[in-house]
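hey so u asked for the seq, here:
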Amino acid sequence: MEDYKDVQERTINLLKLEYEVSRSLIDKLDGRLFIVRNWAVTTTGAIVALSLTVDQPRVLMVGVVPALFFAFLEMIYQCWVYDAISYSQDLESQIHRVVVEKGALDPNYKFGVRGRIHPPEF
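ran it, structure tokens below
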């Protein structure tokens, strides 16, 4: 039978791994958010430049569609980043509980990020 120290060490290693994954997910989502913003600026700038080049201000109206699309995409990514940060903070609490307080995991704890990232609710 395993002693408490072995179980605690395995639990700590599992939580560390999961925490690294959660931080990696936050970085990945932040990177995607940056890409969406770059595309929004590039697309809007190109439409403004086209409008000025052809001397047709109505072309700017076309620029509203991609701007709304990119705004919607950014809101989705912001929701996912918020969920990932919340998940990471919960993991920090679990790590504190196990390492510092020498307690057991929260009984409601579930391994994995999959159940924590939800579709945005508008």
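The mean pLDDT is 88. Residues 80 and 117 are 6 Å apart (CA to CA).
lmk if thats what u needed
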